[in-house]
Amino acid sequence: MAKTKTNGDYTSIAYGQEKVLRGEGGETHQVAGGDVPVLTTQQGVPVADDQNSLKIGARGPTALEDFHFREKIFHFDHERIPERVVHARGYGAHGYFETTASLADVTRADIFQRVGEKTPAFVRFSTVAGAKGSFDLARDVRGFAVKLYTKEGNWDIVGNNIPVFFIQDAIKFPDFVHSVKEAPDRAFPQAASAHDNFWDFISLSPESMHMIMWVMSDRAIPRSFRFMEGFGVHTFRFVNAEGKSTFVKFHWKPKLGLQSVVWNEAVKINGADPDFHRRDLWDAIESGNFPEWELGVQLFDDAFADKFAFDVLDATKIIPEEEVPIRVVGRLVLDRMPDNFFAETEQVAFCTQNIVPGVDFTNDPLLQGRNFSYLDTQLKRLGSPNFTFLPINAPKCPFATLQQDGHMTMRNPKGRVNYEPNSWGGEQGGPRESPEKGFKSFPEEVAGQKRRLRAESFADHYSQARQFYISQTEIEKQHIADAITFELSKVETPAIRSRVVSHLLNIDGELAKKVATAIRLKDLPKAADAARPTRTDLKESLALSIVKNGPKRFEGRKLGILVTDGVDANALADLKKSFAAEKALVEIIAPEVGGVSAGDGTWIEAKQRLDGAPSVLYDAVAILASAEGGTQLAHHPSARDFVADAFAHQKFIGWHGNVAPLFAKAGIADELDGGVVQLKGPDDARVFAERCAGLRFWPRAEKFKAGSSKPAATATAPKKNGNGGKKNGNGGGKPQ
Asked: Which of 138, 185, 402, 409 is the most buried (most CB within 10 A)?
């Protein structure tokens, strides 16, 4: 940057190709010209100086007449709108929904009439309990809200990544949310349910126990938005052209399979990268690896609803896929990030009431309450009933109303007509209703006394909780027990801890005993009094396990490769090629962010510096070290943590070169197993990439059970699913 000449109050300076001036106080003034537009006020008035307020003398008071300064500060002071009470921390993306199968037989919804047609969509993912500034990997439900801009209006499927909810009636929603939020007298904990208020509410609300099994499972700590399911939660109706009703439940199935993190990993990710889920979605879309889900529907009639063991209007219950198979009817693809986070992701307004002709509600009492609440919420957040005119909320099909005025009106009726019926015909008369195209509610017959009551068919609180638990693999069951133990360890009131265990006894006796032992209950309580006895005849459901529904390959996942100076360039090339074939992401990590010089003299750029790239940020890792580099890594604290954490989190670890000193310092040299793979050549790199599809080498988890005294597992090569197998020449063994 060089000083060139004086120009009035400014000095021109050379700064690349851009015209830049320096003020008398040394401040930088970037000047419009060429393709650079002129900065203006909100009224369109060109701005001469955006660096200094108008003053009376160089060091005098600021003049009240400085309208540009006042407008700028005024707008800044009002930039923040009230954050959502729940789902405050969210992240969104644009995309499209493509219809892959017609549903014309069961619904007149326009979106399902033409196979191959694409409908614009916007999706917002979120946590529930935390504030906007909380971290991504809290143990929490994840919102999965989809806005479909159909040709007959906007349809919002406002769902979660868990298909059930804590409560059965919307009148309890304020109580539930108050209990899980930070305590009002101390304003903590933030984005955490591990405290007295939450578990007090849960222990006094048996209807919550099914949801507790889901939230204490790994479903509540997903690896990525891209690797989690979405559910509409409630039972809705489809209505076809003849007026026939069919019940429907909505399911979003991720193309790349399910995946979660383990708890210790989640805790460390929140410290290393609190924006982990946001960054993952951004990186995937920006790199062209567009996330994709299939839309599946469960369709059933009144006859099934009548014979089903539970009430289909109960939001704390699922319909197992084995009883009503999922029919895939479309795919959702996210391919574009918002141009501006606030304008789109923050201002997007989802309402469960936003449905289209061919879709209708049921009498689910939680859904009925949500239909009332969401519209009210948007008015509070966005400040006006005209929030529907914001571009992210506006329909993309033609729309016409007779509504007018209000704060921030952007579109009022033209002409004299703002009412109907009216005497003015044609265009002057304004929009008219359409009996043929318009939305019609299903004419369900309803009768009964007007009373405050809960249906007896809602009274079974434990049977499906038990079904969920027995459907998990052994490692997933252990994670549930560990999660409940951790949460209750933060509960200070012994009576609450004991009461929770009394409910667990109605779900699974062994689970209850595990938790009771872990929290050192002096006496095992009696089982809670159940409104309905727990059914033990419900069968396991394959769809309820994450491990059983994992990916078929490492596609979309990330391998972190730690390299040193002198690294074998061929070994690195083999590894990158093998993982590229699996459509996986590869990130190079080095002791210094610039990179390393390979053994053949080539320079290898690094994406991350070792101190800022712990192994928790990757789905699998590899260490490629030269003789000298391996010795240096052994003395690097972050390198030792990198290896020790990857091993403790049951990740697959590939290695090449002098890594023995590092493994020894990390404390795993004598415990290497089939999840630690030596990379001797191209074939080994390919096999390693294929094995990583298992995501975790679960047999290793036995070593990390609290109080375990089992010896280290012998080195074996895992099967492709990562659950152990026979020895071969490519896996395990100590580095030489």
From this structure: 138
Beta bridge partners of 622: 561, 654
d(CA 275, CA 280): 8
Q: What is the Cα Rg of the chain in Å? A: 30
Q: Which two tokens stand for residue 323?
A: 């009883």
Mean pLDDT for the stretch of residues 261-286 = 98
Q: Is 484 exposed, middle or buried (0-12, 13-18, 19+ CB in 10 A)?
A: buried
CA distances from 259 to 220, 551, 721 (A): 11, 8, 13
**Tens of pLDDT along 296-307?**
999 999 999 999
Instruction: Write down the pTM of the prediction.
Output: 0.91
Catalytic residue among 160, 161, 506, 658: 160
Report phi then psi at 657, rounded to 5. Answer: 95, -150
* Confidence check: pLDDT of 636 > 80: yes
Cβ partners under 8 Å of residue 733, min gap 6? 672, 678, 715
Query: Which strand (E) or helix (H) includes residue 29?
Result: strand 28-30
> So what's the pLDDT on residue 564?
98
Q: Tell me the C-alpha distance between 283 and 432, whole Å.
A: 47
Active site includes 371? no
The pLDDT tens digits for 670-714 are 999 999 999 999 999 999 999 999 999 999 987 766 434 333 333
Interval 575-585: pLDDT, tens: 999 999 999 99
- Give the whole-angstrom CA distance, residue 89 versus residue 225: 13
The CB-side HSE value for 189 (13 A sphere, CA atoms) comes to 15
* Strands in 448-580 per DSSP E: 558-563
Distance CA 673, CA 715 (A): 4
Give the C-alpha separation, 50 to 341, whole Å.
24
Sequence-ordered alpha helix ranges (H) in 162-220: 173-180, 196-203, 209-215
Which residue in 29, 87, 195, 251 is the catalytic one?
A: 87
Q: What does the alpha-carbon distance between residue 193 and residue 196 come to, in Å, rounded to a whole number?
A: 9
- HSE-CB at 576 with a 13 A cutoff on CA atoms is 14
Q: Which residues contact 491 (CB under 8 A, 6 or more apart)?
A: 194, 195, 196, 199, 497
Please, where are the H alpha helices in 216-364? Answer: 263-272, 276-286, 302-307, 341
